[in-house]
Amino acid sequence: MPQPSRPLEPERGLPEWFGAELRHHRQRAGLSQDELGRLVHFSGDLIGKIEKAERNCSIALAQDLDNALQIGGVLARAWRLVEAQADNRPGDADKYSGSLVEAGRTREFQGMLERNDRTASEKGLPMLRREILSVALNWGAAALLAPIAPAVSSLIDALGSGDLNESRRPVDLVNLSIRLVRVKNLMQASAFDHATALLPALLRDLEATGNRITETETGHLRMLTADAHQVTATVLLKQGDPGSAALAVNRSIDAALSSEDPLTIATAFRTASHTLLRTNRSALATDLAASHAANLDRHPATPDLLSTQGSLLLKAAVAAATGNQPSAAAGYLDAAKDTAEHLGSDGNYCWTGFGPTNVELHRLHVALELGDLDQATIEASRIGADSISLPDRKARYAVDAAAAYAGTGRFDDALESLWLAESTAPQEARTIKSVPETLDAIRRSGNDRIRSNAAALADRLEQPA
Predict the structure, then answer these.
(1) Who contacts 412 (Cβ-Cβ below 8 Å, separation ≥6)?
(2) Per-residue exposure over 380-412, b if at least 16 CB sit within 10 Å of its own CB, e if not
(3) Cα 406 from Cα 118, distance rounded (Å)
(4) Cα end-to-end span (Å), the chain
(5) pLDDT tens for residues 321-350?
(6) How far apart are CA 335 and CA 313, in angstroms?
(7) What pLDDT does residue 96 have?
(8) Positive/negative CA dihedral, 221, 266, 280, 401
(9) 18 near 79, Cβ under 8 Å?
């Protein structure tokens, strides 16, 4: 009589979760460990040990298991979560007491991103990595099993897959740079579908080029790799997949630190802050953005640096507001205003869109996050949409203005703002979580004409009616 399977503990870590997923799909297929082993040309004993997290699974075996179980690549994608954590096991992070926020208050931790301060870096970075990878663990199962658009699925498969076709040839860095610039421009133009379609080949070509360049080109390639993974994380966040975005952030940080370029490092950690904020880690997101803004003080104040520093301060302000810290949010906004004044004018250095207008846009958003609708309405009325040149920023402004107007009973103004967002950057408008909330408020409280217009707009933006 066969013995009952030993209960598994998927909550213990990623290898255990992977094993539990394998057992779930095997049992759903009605296969024993031996039967599944024969299908993939391995022993049933090995299958059992993988299920119990006693043996590691290779990417090739994960792919064979996917094919045998006919589950559409679930285990191959899950394998990447396990692999990403391989060098950052919880035991390593447990050596360090306290959170990154606490560490950030110590003098030793200041400047942890610099290569010449490895002691500080090694004390703070494992804790941060654990936080980022926990996002992948907590969100991974839902993301892997949810329906995914083909372009997004291809992007996830390309995300550090490491299983390149040997015939793939390296690409020169100029070509890679031009393609990355194109993707960034598409993102700011709110052409997310097009950008998503271009990213998988770019990620694969960056990896294929990695081992076949001269030593002098290595730094440039690492900067490109960090930026490409940062954009990948942004795309995946917009697609509602924080788990895969966290993996992209992890790879961006690795490449950025290896590049030793301060702006590349700061940009990678700004995206890390955004990812943490999107997964309800506002305190950590605040400190991460603020500390890396401060780290840039030691470098010459070029327009690129000021813009990157200002965007970090604005990220810290939003994160503080999300965590209901109004004084801290106001302080970061004031610091960002000073930085914008030093810069002198609106610009788009390092694709930040930073400048005085950008600071005012964030004052509006912070007021909304803090629930101060009267102040948000004042800020919305103060900003002219014509002063915002970037489509994605104009759409964000319009959505925030709509929320402020709807919250204060100005439903016609709210609808007009949402129409502006739709006409300017419809793909951006579809990704913003406050849009359905604003439309719902309009439908509940407006007159018949307004409710009808709101319902039509909801249909166009593919929001629930």
Answers:
(1) 450
(2) beebeeeebebbbbbbbbbbbbbbbbbbeebbe
(3) 50
(4) 55
(5) 999 999 999 999 999 999 999 999 999 999
(6) 7
(7) 27
(8) negative
(9) yes
Name the 3-class secondary structure at 410. Answer: coil
Tokens of 247: 């993996």
Blockwise average pLDDT, block size 10, the chain, 465 residues: 59 77 88 89 86 83 88 80 54 31 34 31 59 64 54 75 55 88 92 91 87 78 94 90 87 92 95 91 92 92 95 96 94 95 93 95 96 95 90 95 95 94 91 90 87 90 56
SS3 track for 301-329: CCHHHHHHHHHHHHHHHHHHHHCCCHHHH
User: Whole-angstrom Cα distance, residue 125 to residue 116?
Assistant: 15
Other residues' Cβ atoms within 10 Å of the Cβ of residue 219: 14
The answer to whether residues 439 and 457 touch, using CB atoms and an 8 Å cutoff, is yes
- Looking at residue 159, the DSSP 8-state letter turns out to be T
Residue 324 tokens, joined:
């209901």
DSSP state of 88: S
Eight-state DSSP code of residue 401: H
Residue 316 CA to residue 333 CA, distance in Å, equals 9
Question: How many other C-beta atoms can be found within 10 angstroms of the C-beta atom of residue 375?
Answer: 16
Specify the amino acid at residue 388: I
Long-range contacts of 59-66 (CB under 8 A, 24+ apart): 59/83, 59/161, 59/162, 59/163, 60/163, 64/40, 65/22, 65/36, 65/40
How far apart CA 402 and CA 259 sit, in angstroms, is 42
- Closest alpha carbon to 152 in 239, 94, 219: 239
DSSP per-residue string spanning 97-144? -S-HHHHHTSGGGTTTTSTT-HHHHHHHHHHHHHHHHHHHHHHHHHHH
Question: Are the C-beta atoms of 20 and 50 separated by less than 8 Å?
Answer: no
Helix (H, G, I), strand (E, B) or coil at 384: coil
> Token pair 């994608």 is at which residue?
77
Residue type present at position 112? M
